[in-house]
Amino acid sequence: MRAIRLALIPMILMAGLTACNQDNRTFGERVRDTVDPPSGPVERAGRAVDRAVDRVAPN
To answer: How far apart are CA 56 and CA 9, in angstroms?
Structure first.
């Protein structure tokens, strides 16, 4: 039971991060998604996580 909970925690975090700021993509992000679209749900989630982290992290 504990292993199941530990496996669910990262999935819940990723779902929360991918739900944030989907509509606020920059022009460059929209161009990249048009020219090189994500090849599947994992890549799409990875890009969304990268964008969410980049917006939260201080530069």
So the answer is: 20
- With 0-12 / 13-18 / 19 or more C-beta atoms within 10 angstroms meaning exposed / middle / buried, residue 40 is exposed
Q: What is the DSSP string of 1-59?
A: -HHHHHHHHHHHHHHHHHHTTSS---HHHHHHHHHS--SSHHHHHHHHHHHHHHHHS--
Residues 46, 47, 49: CA angle, nearest 5 degrees: 65
Span 15-51, pLDDT tens digits: 665 555 556 778 888 888 888 888 888 888 888 888 8
